[in-house]
TrEMBL record, chains A, B:
SUPFAM superfamilies: PLP-dependent transferases, Winged helix' DNA-binding domain
Name this polypeptide is given: PLP-dependent aminotransferase family protein
PANTHER family in the cross-refs: HTH-TYPE TRANSCRIPTIONAL REGULATORY PROTEIN GABR, TRANSCRIPTIONAL REGULATORY PROTEIN
Name of a matching Pfam family: Aminotran_1_2
Domain HTH gntR-type as annotated: residue spans: 9-77
Family: In the C-terminal section; belongs to the class-I pyridoxal-phosphate-dependent aminotransferase family.
Molecular-function GO terms, alphabetical: transaminase activity
Species for this entry: Castellaniella ginsengisoli
Length: 479, 479
């Protein structure tokens, strides 16, 4: 172990620095017990009282905490914790939850080219109203009972059938309904990892993966993403260096980049997973928006190593909360138990409404229409942004996301903050990046860019945004 | 540290036993790193190869697991885990999830005197149909959007107002809507505890508390429950011995005992919480069924130390999933972040339906009617069970639960298993007991005992059940 020399300004300060580095590097994960006072004193050649002082000061800072009679521990999500405090302290406005908070709570008048969903008027509002009335009339509707542990069998069958139309057949017995795609990922993480386990994600990736994995106190390892999937050299190196238990990614049009996994990389990842005992979680919630059949980790080749997640939030409604996971059949009982223990049962009534919506033939027609609208919106958005000096990192053939490089010297977080003051919700690159190397990038949602005032407002925002030379990537200070 | 002598049958076996005991006693919680090979060898005066063999064998048993190059760890909920495996291995049919599984998945024809909810025809089915139609018609209904992070403001206000009618005023800013009462408890546990922390529960308590706390890998400490609340001597002793972070309990009619917390004990618990830095979680989901204003931990005296949880599952619908938590205002942002990270947003449409139901004046009338029906059902059930030789531990003045002692020599788990074969869902005592000392008890739901065939079927079941002399409490074997 390399012990950094204790700086001259004081042994206590040196020891504190030593502890801080170990924690920041996740060598000592949240919840880990710190070395004993005696052990630490011996190791660093200082007196026990110096160690006591260093630990006490770190405890006062909230970085570690004492348990009476049981030593000191790395502070966990605890006592009480803010999620933003797990991992290095972040500027609250560019932490991974920034986009969620803004987009969930910003007023209805705001323009939201940074949000992660389709406009309200693209969604099947009339069909939802009709389905609600149908369920209200149905004498057998599950109005008051708890739902079965795995979810309504009718919906599990419909999901299996639906997925079969765009990929390999799925056995409904492998499907567990949840209250959201996020909850499905959360359940799988609860099942598969424990604090301190390494998890691979794409860099950039869906920001909420970062928040979720922090809540699990995982060690998050970002692998640079390319237009056809992860950088495979770095992926393989990360497997060897960090021995991760999971790789958590998006299928179909990738969030935030719009990248599309190639079949070659899919095969390679599946093969590596077998060799390195890696479990793959493929969040497929944009699958119904893809232009053609894309490569998937969750196919016959992936087999038991892949768990697939989906939901209806992006195509039907984000207010009818319902997601699902598809995993090894012999995992399902344990996953259902874990789900019962932590949320009891699913939303039977919501599931019944979704059954009505999927049974309706209009559903296939609706998703086809969404794909057509997105295919038109994408080049339009590329043109609009190009005129403002924003260049796409990659031009996706569909999906809602466009990942753009900002003009030289513009910092995404600063721009997003300014935008918010003017009723413009933007998604700055660094909320998607575990390594915080995407300060010059921004995610746009091409379906949310129709407002005629948007180009002018964006142009003014960029014009008035102070520039750095050279551009900073992650030089944010707390406001 | 007391090191037991290594038995003569082999040093490896002795070491294995030593490790097993430490794990069983939770001195080494799940996820903890085991002592190094060298350290262990030194401590026990054995060779390193003996330690290697012991660890390897324990790893093969799944009790510990190796991480390449990083030593051995106590196995967590992992790889893949069954929840039933956290903590001592249990007979699957009397583990804490047994009742959930049976009651969620048993057929509609079965009689369910063991289940935890009111009969379908006691629930406001017509009002729910009406509310669904109203929402379907409402031009402003939240049909497709994500809900605000804390939930619909209208529902938070209605909940605050409703709680104010039966207890002290609640500030809506302290309310976070969740997808269920269970999810609210889960969120609070995620926020407040980490693996290995001690949590006090009542013995017996709601079985799902045990399953939930296992999922959090907490050290569960049961305190014997009395008709007016916990045994205070044991409660205080547990505070001193185990230094728990939380006490998780039910308010109002207690589940499963129907006990009613006295004001004296409530004050005493609040005072102890201040002294011992204990957080209290009060799950109040039966509050609308109580006969009069009961004592609460969550009142002015409890202050910031108490988080309160509730839901509408027991009085409106368990299919409209919605619960809430009420906690310190300065915790709410962090709790909402944690909720966003792990399930994204709440069910806006469900929340809107519940707003309609609570706005309706019929709601107060409905709960009054439920209380009247329960007040009639309780003595009727006591009489019915008395005729079969089952004696109530306590006669509650309301609520749905009756906690009964079975006739001498009858084991609850055995009786429940036999019942299941005959379409009778029973709730055996030990699923509610952390110490598994309730083998001779059973929980009955007085609202589910109207079927005229029930007395005869129960009588036959008891008559045909083999008896132990003396009665066994927890002598179950796996089937």
């Amino acid at each position: 172990m390399d012990i950094p020399p204790i700086p001259p300004q004081g042994r206590t300060a040196g020891l504190m620095q030593f502890v801080r580095r170990r924690i920041a590097a996740r060598e000592w994960p949240p919840g880990a017990r710190l070395p004993s006072l005696r052990g630490m004193a011996l190791q660093h050649g200082v007196s026990k009282s110096t160690v006591v002082e260093a630990y006490d000061r770190l405890a006062a800072e909230g970085i570690i905490r004492a348990r009476a009679g049981a030593g000191f521990y790395v502070a966990g999500p605890l006592a009480p914790l803010a999620l933003a405090e797990i991992g290095p302290r972040l500027d609250r406005q560019i932490d991974p939850l920034w986009v969620s908070r803004q987009s969930l709570d910003i007023g209805a008048q705001a323009l939201k080219p940074g949000c992660g969903w389709l406009p309200d008027d693209w969604m099947p509002r009339d069909a939802i109203r009709r389905a609600l009335r149908q369920v209200a009339r149905d004498p057998d509707a599950p109005l008051t009972d708890y739902a079965p542990a795995l979810g309504l069998p009718a919906l599990r069958s419909l999901i299996a059938r639906h997925l079969g139309t765009r990929g390999p057949a799925v056995d409904p017995r492998r499907i567990l309904l949840t209250d959201s795609g996020t909850q499905a990922v959360d359940l799988l993480c609860r099942f598969l990892i424990q604090p301190g386990d390494a998890v691979l994600v794409d860099d950039p990736c869906y920001f909420n993966f970062l928040a979720l994995l922090r809540a699990h106190r995982a060690r998050i390892i970002g692998v640079p993403h390319e237009p056809d999937g992860p950088d495979m050299d770095r992926f393989e190196a990360a497997l060897r260096t960090h021995r991760p238990r999971l790789y958590l990614s998006n299928a179909g049009p990738h969030n935030p980049t719009g990248a599309r996994l190639s079949a070659i990389k899919a095969r390679r990842i599946q093969a590596l997973a077998r060799v390195h005992d890696l479990i793959l979680i493929e969040d497929d919630l944009f699958g119904d928006l893809e232009a053609g059949p894309y490569a998937r980790l969750a196919d016959e080749e992936g087999g038991d190593r892949v768990a697939q997640v989906g939901s209806f939030s992006k195509t039907l409604s984000a207010s009818l909360r319902c997601g699902y996971l598809i995993a090894r059949e012999d995992w399902l009982d344990a996953l259902a138990d874990l789900r019962t223990a932590t949320t009891f049962s699913g939303a039977g009534l919501t599931q019944a409404v979704i059954v009505r919506l999927l049974q309706d033939g209009a559903w296939q027609q609706h998703t086809r229409l969404l794909r057509q609208r997105l295919a038109l919106a994408m080049p339009r958005a590329i043109g609009l942004l190009d005129a403002l000096g924003l260049r796409p990192w990659h031009e996706p053939d569909t999906g809602m996301f466009l990942w753009c490089r900002l003009p030289e010297g513009i910092d995404g977080a600063r721009l997003a903050r300014a935008g918010l003051q003017q009723g413009l919700m933007l998604a700055p690159g660094n909320v998607f990046s575990q390594t915080r190397t995407a300060g010059g990038m921004m995610r746009f949602n091409v379906s949310q860019m129709d407002d005629p005032s948007l180009p002018g407002r964006l142009a003014a925002l960029i014009r008035n945004c102070p520039r750095d030379t050279p551009p900073t990537l992650s030089s944010e200070k707390s406001p």
